[in-house]
């Protein structure tokens, strides 16, 4: 006697068309445009420029507050004659060196922290000591140790990047689930390979947040440092450009330099970091 269930014949039910079903109409053009993030941000910038222009007209003193149009003219002139571009290039070259060195040291500290108890104690102690210390407060020591030049700027930049990035990275490592850790150990991953292939991909949202915070700290620290002692290896950067024009009462050029600082910050945030997030954590479903 067979205990297998009776075999049923396969059949297909044809579905009838639904002629009375009304499809949703396409969204209006204005609503589709409003959903574009770049357009909304552009409108915000235009509104701020309009407020600036109105405030300058109300102030009526170009020495205290030049108008947006005057600042835009000075900015275009600085770009046209190459002076502003040269200052930006000098500042960015120093910034990249200090930023990359700070990333390397932060990666080393956090790797030690997740590998050994001594590394955890070392990271905890150093961040408690140096993270509250403003980078600009180290300028006198950097001048004493490295002299007036690029090395002094790199020293304060490393300090501004290192601790914020190390703390965010270590917090991200601690947040990696035990399931992912066990999967890595089952594959035989240990030490540096475990960090590279398991911890860093899983903690990437926290790492990217630390990179953005470190970038912001480094950028404003560099401008402040150049405002104080300015010249780097005989050349002045963007902060020095602002300081010199302030002394010569070219307030429109001062605002043009500040506008360059802001524009570089916007470009890095909306092009570099936004692109990295889009192709990594957002594509992987780790971030909305």
TrEMBL record:
Coiled coil: none annotated. The chain crosses the membrane at residues 99-118, 130-148, 154-173, 194-217, 223-243, 255-276. Residues 84-273 form the ABC transmembrane type-1 domain. It is a multi-pass membrane protein. It is found in: Cell membrane. InterPro entries: MetI-like, MetI-like_sf. The keyword Transferase does not apply. The keyword Transmembrane helix applies. Belongs to the binding-protein-dependent transport system permease family. This is NitT/TauT family transport system permease protein.
